[in-house]
Amino acid sequence: MPLSEHEQRLLEQIERALVDDDPKFASSVRTGDRRQKARRKLQLGGLLVLVGLAVLVGGAVAESVPLGVLGFLVAFGGAALGVLHYRSATGAVVEPAGGPTGSRGSSAAGRGNRSRQGRPPMKNRLEERFRRRYDQ
After folding, report:
1. 49 within 8 A of 75, measured Cβ to Cβ
2. Nearest-angstrom CA–CA distance, 47 and 54
3. Per-residue pLDDT tens for 80-127?
4. Where are the domains of the chain?
5. 3-state secondary structure 69-125
């Protein structure tokens, strides 16, 4: 979801303040694209799965149990690497476990809306809290 103009301006202000306060940290954060690094790790995970499966099959053909176990571990490690970096590599949104179709989700949302009447949205409260901390 794209940011609104107000949110983009706030983000730019935060970035400028970060660069002013700690330029070394800001440059280290800016040096790489997280999504690109996550894509590389996702690709590496896929490659490891293929290599692991090849070693696993090679171990089965050679009737070598340690080689088969090694192949399985390499494939499992590659799959784990891919799963861990899939979300950040693709920008996929993962639904929470008790999603809106669950019985608890709909009743909790109803209660939450009634109890929050009169309160400003969380985004506004967080922005105000940030302003107070930054002004100190």
Report:
1. yes
2. 11
3. 988 888 877 776 655 555 545 544 444 444 555 555 567 778 888 888
4. 1-31, 33-92, 102-136
5. HHHHHHHHHHHHHHHHHHHHHHCCCCCCCCCCCCHHHHHHHHHHHHHCCCCCCHHHH
